[in-house]
UniProtKB/TrEMBL annotation:
One example GO MF annotation: lipid binding
Cytoplasm recorded as keyword: no
Source lineage: Eukaryota, Metazoa, Cnidaria, Hydrozoa, Hydroidolina
Region annotation (Disordered) ranges: 1-31
Keyword Acetylation: no
InterPro entries: Ig_E-set, PDE6D_unc-119_myristoyl-bd, PDED_dom, PDED_dom_sf
Family listed: Belongs to the PDE6D/unc-119 family.
GO biological process entries: cilium assembly; lipoprotein transport; nervous system development
Residue intervals of the GMP phosphodiesterase delta subunit domain: 64-220
Protein name, entry field: GMP phosphodiesterase delta subunit domain-containing protein
A GO term from the CC aspect: cilium
Keyword entries, A-Z: Lipid-binding, Protein transport, Transport
Source domain of life: Eukaryota
Length: 222
């Protein structure tokens, strides 16, 4: 993806679809457990696509981060109205009121986000998620994210986004477009009635090797 040292270059990319498309291509016996993945030396995109529930643990050590990828800002907006629904930034960014809570001594600090929205969020057609991040002295090739969403350990949807190539010591920005399927009102009610039982795993890959893993949970009773 485009990048520069002085300013973040910006692009928009769409990702989509229920993971049911993936499930339809796979046999039930192809499912992998979190425990099986934790025993592997290298975890690939195909591996995480075979998980059938949200993880309880992180699949990679947050202290390693060989490419020194650091997320510095994150914003969610409604595509149709352009209303900003959520925004968070590192403390160095004084233009934003909400700051990331990062503990330098905790390897898992900054890897989990808790969201609280109204039920109207579940009725949106699409949202844009802008992420800003920096990388260290090594070039980052084939940077890719797979994000999987679950409710009560039932797979809701999966998104697959490609960042592409990031230059060494660069700052980067990309807006991913999440296109949502229509959710039945009965399921919306169930999700509202069970806050934080909607969860997601965000898996980040470089050259098809898992290098970062972030987690989130969601409530829709705001």
């Amino acid at each position: 993806m485009p990048s520069s040292d002085s300013a973040a270059a910006k692009s928009k990319k769409k990702g989509g679809g229920f993971l049911s498309r993936q499930v339809a291509k796979s046999k039930k016996g192809d499912t992998l457990t979190e425990e099986q993945l934790l025993k592997k030396d290298t975890i690939t995109v195909d591996d995480v696509l075979r998980l059938d529930r949200a993880t309880e643990n992180y699949l990679v050590d947050g202290r390693k981060n060989p490419y020194k990828i650091e997320f510095t800002r994150f914003k969610i907006r409604d595509i149709e109205s352009a209303a900003v629904l959520f925004e968070i930034a590192k403390p160095e960014d004084e233009d934003h009121d909400t700051e990331m809570d990062v503990d330098e001594d905790d390897p898992d600090s900054g890897r989990f986000v808790r969201y609280r929205f109204t039920d109207e969020f579940l009725r949106l057609n699409s949202v844009g998620a802008t992420v800003e991040f920096s990388v260290g002295p090594k070039p980052v090739e084939n940077f890719r994210m797979v994000e999987r969403h679950y409710f009560k350990d039932q797979l809701l949807k999966s998104f697959d986004f490609t960042f592409g190539f990031c230059m060494p010591n660069s700052k980067n920005s990309c807006e991913h477009i999440y296109e949502f399927p229509k959710i039945p009102e009965s399921q919306i009610k169930d999700m509202v009635d069970h806050p934080y039982e909607t969860r997601s795993d965000s898996f980040y890959f470089v050259n098809n090797e898992l290098v970062m893993h972030n987690k989130a949970d969601y409530a829709y009773d705001g």
